[in-house]
Amino acid sequence: MAKVKNREELERRLARRIGKAHGEALKQLLDFLGDPPTWDDVPQDFWETSGKALRGAIGPIMEEIYLLQAETLLEEFGGIGVDWDLVNQAAADWAREHARDLVNELQTNSYEQARLAVADFYEQGLTMEDLEAKLGRIYGPTRAETIAVTEVTRAATEGERGVVDDLAQLGIKMIEFWATENDDLVCVICGPRNEKREGDGWTKSDGPPAHPKCRCWVNHEMEAT
């Protein structure tokens, strides 16, 4: 399997959507906190509504990437027939569940980091400008980019694996291989896995992605009969 199609564009689109949701959340959070900031003035439903907005930003693109990579895999093997309705349903189900779990994790981290930032305002004598800078990093473009790169990798991998599971039901078995750029930028985690088949030093639970901003992918070959 080739690398993820249009990866850079998909990453940019996802990062923009995350950035927009984060930007709106940051503005609301600052409004709730006030000046000087009062953590107890941030209502619980802020985290629920901002989480819902973030799920809406992430989920559709995750589903799209899953389907794109599933389609690419099938085309590479000559258009092997699968029930495309089932593939579409699997993509929707996976994207919905993963977006929920991912956003829950992200929101938990955002909550804790924001709470500590407000505590630092008083404990370290920060200014409101300092606090806004801290909160801006929590909701800023660097974090959005990291999430986008990582999750494009994850959705593409899951799209291929979903189709491979469907093909297994038809008696067509595939062998999965890890793939990297195999250049000087490959990290010490992924480098040793390059071109290694599943089970040879790694398992599906290891990724891809193996770490934040991992851009590895998986290749599949038909198992010899």
Highlighted features:
5 helices, single chain, mainly alpha, 2 strands, 225 residues, elongated, two-stranded antiparallel ribbon
Protein described:
This protein is mainly α and 225 residues long. It is built from five helices and two strands. The chain has a two-stranded antiparallel ribbon. Helix 2 (44-76) crosses helix 5 (141-169) and helix 3 (84-123) runs antiparallel to helix 4 (128-138). The longest helix is centred in the middle third of the chain and has 40 residues, at 84-123. The two termini are 20 Å apart. The mean pLDDT is 93.
Side by side, the strands of the main sheet go 1-2
Q: Report the average pLDDT across residues.
A: 93
Give the SSE order as H and E letters: HHHHHEE
As a percent range, the share of helical residues equals 55-70%
Broad shape: elongated
Unreliable stretches (pLDDT < 50, length at least 5) are none
Overall number of strands = 2
What is the rounded Rg? Answer: 20 Å
Contiguous helical run count: 5
CA-CA gap between termini: 20 Å
Structural class: mainly alpha
Biggest β-sheet strands, sense, barrel: 2 strands, antiparallel
What share of residues are in beta strands? 5-15%
